[in-house]
Write the structure tokens for this entry.
Amino acid sequence: MSMKTRKRLMTAGKAVILTLFLLNVILPLYWMVITSFKTNAEIVNVHEITYFLKTFTLENYIDLFKQYDYGTMLKNSVVMSVTTGVVVTVFAIFGGYGMARYRFKGKGAMNLFFLLTQMVPGILVTIPIYVLYSKIGLINTAPGLIILFVIGNIPFTSITMRSFFERIPASLEEAAWVDGCSRMQGIVKIVLPVMLPGIVSVFIFAFIGAWNDLMTGTIFISSSKLWTIPVGLKSMIGKYSVPWGTLMAGGVMAMLPTTIMFVFMQKYIVEGMTAGSVKE
């Protein structure tokens, strides 16, 4: 076998693998979208599975808001996710700056502890946290859920922000100090604008973590008025029946905010992932 033929076979093999991977990602999304626009009769008809729409309808989306109060779920998810993203980003900026710019005893141990927390399954600490929450009255409250989201995201995002701060020359801040800026002014006016891609990346990570969370909301929230979208969609699955059309409509609606966010912020996300090519 010639080298040219071997290269062609390798290229064809890579194309097949990538195509299969792409179909594995796209087909479930396609099925969810078209199912959300099907009638219930078309969905449950096991004798004739339709891969394309026969009858277009919006009744699943109408039922989603009328019967399941999806508007409240959407509001709860937006408020909790945005709050989590903002709070986590602020804490991560200060935590990352401290780890990158200051030398103190136990710094290495703290970094190791932050990394180890990412290896511990969240379910292991759920019972102690639940007992603690029940004693201080944070069960079934929005602030209690937000606190859990924030605590769960701070270690990883702080480490991430530390790496961004380490890539920025300290001489930029020192020049600002010479010009009369305080340390805080140097951070706000000089460092943070340069770190915008990293800040956006951290915010999106925390936002999506809170937006997609199911386990925490299911355990700590019982009132339907405080349900987030994942918890609300889970509640639609009954013991004897599942409103597939409405459930798929809820999935499509839940996917839209994060999709729009990635479309408009992908530039910053890519810059944040590739930042730091220039070092002091």
About this structure: The chain has 13 helices and no strands. The domain at 29-274 is CATH 1.10.3720.10 (MetI-like fold). The CA atoms of residues 27 and 166 lie 41 Å apart. The chain has one domain: 29-274.
